[in-house]
Amino acid sequence: MNFLFKKNSKKMNFIASILLIFILIYFFILISTYIFQRNLLYHPGENNYFGDDIAVSVEKVKIKTQDDIELLAWYHNKNINKYKTILFLHGNAGSLENRIHKINHFKEMNINFLLIAWRGFSGNKGKPTEKGLYEDAESAVRWLKSKGIGQNNIIVYGESLGTGVATEIAQNKNFAGIILESPFTSMIDAGKDKYPYLPVRFLLKDKYESNKKIKNINIPILIMHGKVDNLVPFHMGKKMYELANDPKYSYFSDYDDHMMEYNENLLKALKDFINSLN
Question: Which of 1, 43, 202, 224 could bridge 93 with an S-S bond, Cβ 3.0-4.6 Å?
Answer without folding.
Answer: 43
